[in-house]
Design brief:
alpha+beta; Glutaredoxin; five-stranded mixed beta sheet; 25 helices; 19 strands; about 45% helix
């Protein structure tokens, strides 16, 4: 039976197109079908590089008998969590009421009105230790739907009410960072590095916070990861996580968002060798269009079978003789923003204009194809996803564009970032809203809730937007940007004190807000410009400086060359010292690193 996934934008959905399950894509039509048939809905969520998603697809979703039963008694919706991030986060929150073992595939049973009443993860066709058979689960859900409908409806309504009452806690800024550092050190694995036990993740946002504060813990963690099997020393880049405390037996998928953040972290830490390896892998993920693919699979095809980790067990010579693991060519706006930011910053710090050029290609693609009438979340092969852009898309892209503007001196990137931040500030919601609103299906069902503010694997939309707003303040002196950033971070400050590993990006923004406002502008090129960029400054030509000033970026007002020579301005709170024209004079005004 053909289903509706063959023409999907998501390669994950297309990989299920040959299933005998009568899959629907996410949208109101599937729920209308459930209403008409008076059957529950299975919302099955995964992503292309998810190992157990592939296993369940090969086993349960390819079983003809299971599929026939599922088709008869349910409407089945397949969702790519990376494409529809709001759907994933909403149903993850709902699924927590039924299982503590959250992960993917995430299979949630909901009413035709979208209200969750049961959930789980991987279910095999036959029962195994810790997992009932998928048919057993389906039978139990059908029985509850037919014979205990009132209970099902009550449970669904109760979960919707609980989700609606979840609001961040307001608290005051600034916070004391010493207890935060102490808590992180207490969580450090003193033997193998990193945080906690198994499974062990890079938690890149926390590493950025530690490295920016020059905390020894950050360098120790980065060194431990670089020396571990989590890193691929041949092709470069880091895998998503390790199943063992000592970093061994990684899950071999490589994610754009992890490596985008790690190239910046290693550059900030001064580890050019590892940063170069990560940048090398990121460059292989750049598609001909200029956008970055979202992930590389953990599995390779060997003798007609998918084998996890096979490719990565080979040496460099042997890898050339086999196909690389497939790439998910879905271009996600937010994750591309992270890559633009990471490569732009690393290129500035390590004097790699080629990395900056790679970031610029991606930015030009996104501004041309993802930001026309409205910002879109995802595309693949020129096909635009129906998924609405989320706050993280606006915030991460704005951050990337601002870092690229600093790296290239081109004001057009800063102007585009300012437009995204201004659009968010103009929405309802405190302090940032999502331009275009929430996912329309979730909104129509009363399920649209505030996005999760935590920064586990990558910055939340709230943290990303606050970071962009603060960066804009530094070049505009427009106080509402700083006020919005502070208000956003005040909402998560208390949680950051209690759970710093989960709020690393927020801590980074809070630390920036608490630091003295110091800015460096160089008008001209040469070694003076290189030194300024390596200290986070912006180097522009005379023409570029004029363009920045005319566009309303106050930091550049009156910044001109003296006697035709490259000239540097070091400013604090927009009050600049006398301009200097030599590297030694500039170095005397800069803090030691």
């Amino acid at each position: 039976m053909p289903n509706r996934l063959a023409d999907a934008a998501s390669p994950y959905l297309r990989s299920h197109a040959s299933n005998p399950v009568d899959w629907w894509q996410w949208g109101p039509e599937a729920f209308a079908e459930a209403v008409a048939r008076d059957v529950p809905v299975l919302v099955s969520i995964g992503y292309s590089t998810c190992h157990w998603c592939h296993v369940m697809a090969r086993e349960s979703f390819s079983d003809l008998g299971l599929a026939a039963y599922l088709n008869e008694n349910f409407v089945a919706i397949k969702v790519d969590r990376e494409e529809h991030a709001e759907v994933d986060s909403t149903y993850l929150a709902a699924a927590a009421a039924f299982t503590g073992n959250l992960g993917w595939p995430l299979n949630v049973f909901v009413t035709p009105q979208g209200r969750a009443f049961f959930a789980g993860t991987y279910w095999p066709p036959e029962p195994v230790a810790g997992h009932p058979a998928f048919r057993q689960v389906l039978d139990a859900v059908v029985d509850a739907w037919r014979n205990r409908r009132d209970e099902v409806e009550r449970n669904g309504a109760a979960i919707v009410d609980a989700l609606a009452q979840q609001h961040p806690v307001d608290s005051a800024l600034p916070i004391d960072f010493e207890p935060v550092l102490g808590e992180l050190e207490a969580l450090e694995d003193a033997t193998y590095g990193g945080f906690g036990g198994a499974p062990k993740f890079p938690v890149s946002p926390v590493l950025r916070f530690l490295v920016e504060r020059r905390a020894p813990l950050g360098s120790r963690t980065l060194d431990a990861m670089a020396a571990s099997p989590l890193r691929d020393p041949i092709d470069g880049g880091f895998f998503r996580y390790s199943t063992q405390r000592d970093w061994h037996e990684p899950h071999y998928e490589r994610m754009l968002y992890d490596n985008a953040q790690l190239v910046a972290a290693y550059a900030l830490a001064g580890n050019s060798e590892v940063a170069e390896g990560v940048a090398q892998w990121l460059e292989t993920m750049q598609l001909p269009s200029g956008g970055f693919a979202s992930a590389q699979d953990s599995e390779s095809t060997v003798d007609g079978r998918r084998v996890e980790g096979f490719y990565y067990s080979l040496d460099a010579a042997s890898r050339k003789l086999v196909d690389k693991p497939p790439v998910d060519e879905k271009i996600l706006t937010g994750w591309n923003g992270l890559a633009i930011e990471g490569l732009s910053l690393a290129g500035m710090l390590l004097d790699r204009p080629d990395w900056i050029a790679t970031a610029q290609r991606a930015a030009d693609f996104l501004l041309e194809f993802h930001a026309r009438e409205r910002l879109i979340r995802a595309s693949i092969g020129g096909v635009v996803s129906t998924a609405h852009a989320t706050l993280e898309d606006f915030g991460m892209l704005a951050c990337g564009l601002l870092q690229l503007a600093a790296a290239t001196g081109e004001v057009r990137y800063a102007m585009a970032a300012r437009a995204f931040v201004d659009a968010s500030l103009a929405q309802e919601g405190e302090p940032f809203g999502v331009p275009g609103g929430a996912d329309p299906v979730l909104a129509s069902q009363g399920l649209a809730v505030e996005a999760d503010p935590s920064d586990g694997a990558h910055p939340s939309g709230l943290s990303a937007m606050a970071a962009a707003a603060h960066s804009l303040f530094l070049v505009t002196a427009h106080e509402p940007y700083r006020v919005a950033a502070r208000a956003a971070m005040a909402r998560v400050a208390e949680a950051a004190l209690r759970h710093p590993v989960s709020l690393g990006a927020a801590l980074t923004v809070m630390a920036r807000l608490a630091s003295p406002v110091r800015q460096i502008v160089v008008v001209g090129g040469g070694e003076l410009a290189t030194v300024a960029r390596q200290h986070g400054g912006i180097a522009v030509s005379v023409e570029q400086g004029t363009a920045w000033a005319q566009a309303g970026f106050e930091l550049f007002e009156g910044r001109t060359q003296r006697a035709g020579a490259t000239t540097a301005y070091v400013c604090e709170d927009f009050v600049c010292r006398l301009p200097v024209t030599t590297v030694s004079e500039l170095a005397a005004l800069l803090p030691t690193r």
